[in-house]
Amino acid sequence: MKRNFLNYRIITGIALTLGLITSCSSDDSDPVDPNPTPTDSRWITVTGARMGETPGDGNGGTLVYAISTEDAKDPSVIVNPFENGFIAPSNRTARLQASEDGNTLFNISYAGDTGGNYTKYDVEGGNAYIQNGTAVNISQYVGTAPRWIKLFDGDQTGCAVYVDVADPTIDDNGTPNDVSDDTYVRTEATMGVVTLDLVDSKIKEVKEHLIPLSAEEEAAGYYISRIDMPTLNEAQDKLYIGARLSKVDPATTESDSDYEILGSKTIVLDYPSLENPTIITSTVGHGNTNGYRSINSWEYNGSVYQANQSDPEGSHILKIDANNQYDDSYVFNLDDALGIEGAYILAWRPAANGKAVIAYRHEGSAEGVAGAQGYFALADLNTRTAQLITDIPYDPDFYLFQYQGFVVQGTEIYLTEAPVGKNGNIYIVETESGDVTKGAQLENAEGSHFIGVF
User: What is this structure's pTM?
Assistant: First the structure.
């Protein structure tokens, strides 16, 4: 059964008007409850990425459609953003964020002529996304394809980052015409950081810093090639930025793909000044901490928990404590927890109880039409345990590499499940009990896929 979604503000207005008429027309009406039962209802934005040239590439545009939490839980409801949704401006898959109450959607266009444009929208149900304020272009500071997220400070601030990598620095040792005597020095990386006022849609701070590694690491050819996922600590005086390392061969300055994977690294900045960059290194996890499309690190219980990727021992959840250093006594390896090999965390989000849903793939994943098959696990940050969520159907074409968004409502986490080009459903995971509810139906389009809820 298809259901038409009415504008909740209109419904509220009608109800309020009728209530006023009734109260004025009769002295016998029931008294107004001074302590009404609170509602947990909110808008949930269902998001799909349309195929461009190949199935699952997501380059045909991002479409969004808003439903209530009640409808999200109703398996009779059918949602089709590809036919009925609002197009979120972006040349490639949009980078979206939502306010905690679901009433506002934030977007920074990714690549193309509008790349780097920040806009926000009032969410009014269905495909009614009404632009709020003017667009702000930040491309001059962080390029047309910036990585950005909001900072979970009450929907006040967003942060976009970018790294510019220079050509390798060579010392000719005083003999500029004799390349045989040249010495590789380093590959210089410059970081750009912008903070955005999400309330008034304006730029707050802009800073640029060199981000050098140790002298030994630089001499070996390592450099930071990508950064992403800025995260505030609990005190909101430090900003953590995830990093990916790459390497050149010092002998040739050509890209080196066969090298030792170093300990996972994070850039730490003072906040809100964005000054004094330092780099911290984990001895537990190895590989990258920048993630891809989804938020890669979350503050919980005074610490920041961060996923890593491309770890030779499988993805870890790493812990950064209030002293702004990695806690190397905290070891949470997804391979060990799930009994698999080559775990790769694609996206994840914890609820306030420290229990999280993790989207991942592993070496045993089937190769689907768009890439490796994905799965969801329920994890516990406190016990460092995880288990496959078996009540969600899995298909070889269930592709999660571009997955972006989960919605947390109390101890419930909402997610989308639909293979590339196939229909699926919203699922709601009750993290305390592990119970899974099958919700609204998701209608897909050829070669397209769903990238989450916001």
Answer: 0.90
